[in-house]
Amino acid sequence: MSKKDSCIIVGAGIAGLMAAERLRMYDFEVTILEKSRGFGGRMAVKNIGDAIFDAGAQFMTTRELSFRQNVEAWLEQGLVQQWYIGPLRNMRYVGVEGMTSVPKELGRTMNVRLSEKVAHVERRGSGWKVTTLPYGSEEATTYEADWLILTPPVPQSLALLDESGIELDYDEEVELKRIQYLRCLTVMAVLNGPAGIANPGAMDLNHDILRWIGDNAVKGVSPVPGTVTIHSSPKFAKAYWDKPEEERIAVMCAAAKPFLKGEVTEAISHRWGMSDPVRVYKEKQPFRKPFFLDEDLQLGMAGDGFNGPRIEAAAVSGRELASAITTPA
Ligand SMILES: Cc1cc2nc3c(=O)[nH]c(=O)nc-3n(C[C@H](O)[C@H](O)[C@H](O)COP(=O)(O)OP(=O)(O)OC[C@H]3O[C@@H](n4cnc5c(N)ncnc54)[C@H](O)[C@@H]3O)c2cc1C
Fold first, then answer.
1. Which of 1, 60, 147, 251 has its CA 20 to 30 A from that of 68?
2. What fold does the segment set 6-41+99-180+278-326 form as a domain?
3. Nearest to 155 by CA among 65, 28, 273
4. CA 222-228-231 angle, 5° bins
C-alpha cells in the first residue's frame, strides 16, 4: 500500500479547519497545530460566570454559493441560526452556542493538537519538520509531513518563515508583506438588566470610539440578560492599545452608556492585534487565487488576509488552497 500524503496545518481557525476538511476528503493525513486552548481563532467565545460573549467575529454572511451551501448544512445540523438581514441585504448567521459552534464541530474528529505554538519550521527532504512548544512544557515536540499550510494572520506567518530561514520568491514576499491588519479593543460587559437594544440586539456604529455593540442575550447566545460585546473603532484601538485595562474598559463603557439601558456590573476586555485585514492578497487582482501556494516548497498560506476580512472569505481561502494541493495544475 502506498504511503498517504500528509499535511501539517498551523491554526485551527476557520481557514485551517476548512482546508483540513477538504484535504481529508482526498485522504490526506492531516495534523492541525493550534497555539490556543480552543478552536475558532478570531471566532472566539468568552464567559463571565454564566454570561456568554462572542468576543471576536459576531456573525457570518454568505456571498459565495459554495459557502452558502456550507452554512445551509450547518443550519440543518443545528450549528448555526439566522440572526438578521444586514445593511447589504445579506442574512447574518450566528453559531447557536456562540461563534465557536462551527469550528468546534469541524475540529471534533480531526487530529488537532491544542495549546501547541509552532515555533520553527524546516525543510526536511521534500517535506517539512515542524517544531512546537506545547503550553506549560519545557520540551519541544516535532511533527513531519509532506505539505505545510500556514493560516495565522499573514505578518505572523511571514515572521515564522523568516525566523526559520525559509525564503520565498522575492516578488511574492513583497506582495505578502503588503497585507496589513487593523487592531480592535473589545469590552465584554454584564449589565444589571436587559441592555435595551431593540431587536436584533446589535448596532453597527460609525462612532469615534465604538464600532459595534451587540447584546448576546437578544442574539440567543447568552442566557444572561444584558451580556454585551463592545468593539472599538480602529482609531481608538491604536490610541488606547497600551493603556491599562481598567482605563480601556472605563472609556469604552462610558462611550457605550448612551446606547444602553442597564448599568455595567462586571467587565473584561481583549486586545485583537490583528482583527481584520485592510489590504488583502487578492485586492485589485481579480485573477489572483485567494491563497498563496508554492508547489516546489510544498507550502501554502490561507486565511482572511488572502481573500477579505470575513469568516466566509477565510473559509473559502482555506478550502481553495486545499483543493489546489489535491488537484495540482
Ligand atoms: C473583533 C473582530 C470582529 C470581527 N467581526 C466579524 C464579523 O462580524 N463577521 C465576519 O465575517 N468576520 C468578522 N471578523 C473577522 C473574522 O473573525 C476573520 O476574518 C476570520 O475568523 C479569520 O479566520 P482565519 O482562519 O483566517 O484566522 P484566525 O481565526 O486568526 O485563525 C488563525 C489561527 O492560527 C493560530 N495561530 C497563530 N499563530 C500560531 C502558531 N505560531 N502556532 C499555532 N497556531 C497559531 C491562532 O491562534 C488562530 O487560532 C472579526 C474579527 C475580529 C477580531
1. 147
2. FAD/NAD(P)-binding domain (3.50.50)
3. 273
4. 130
With a 6 A CB cut-off, is 310 part of the ligand 1 pocket?
yes
Extents of the domains making up the chain? 6-41+99-180+278-326, 184-272
Q: How many angstroms is it from 13 CA to the middle of ligand 1?
A: 6
Residue 324: the pLDDT is 97
DSSP helix/strand/coil, 72: helix
Mean pLDDT on 76-82: 98
Instruction: Determine which of 73-77, 262-266, 283-287, 318-322 has the lowest per-residue pLDDT on average.
Output: 283-287
Residue range 122-140: mean pLDDT, rounded = 93
CA distance 104 to 8: 19
Ligand 1 close to Cβ of residue 60 (< 6 A): yes
Does residue 151 register a pLDDT over 70? Answer: yes
CATH 3.30.565.10 fits 184-272, yes or no: no
- Give the separation between CA 168 and CA 159, rounded to whole angstroms: 12
Q: Could you count the other beta carbons within 10 Å of the beta carbon of residue 209?
A: 19
Neighbouring C-beta atoms of residue 137, cutoff 10 Å:
11
Please give the pLDDT value at position 218. 96
Look at residue 283 in the predicted model and tell me its pLDDT.
Answer: 81
Cα 311 to averaged position of ligand 1 atoms, centre (Å): 8
Q: Is the dihedral of CA 214, 217, 221, 223 positive or negative?
A: positive
d(CA 293, CA 279): 19
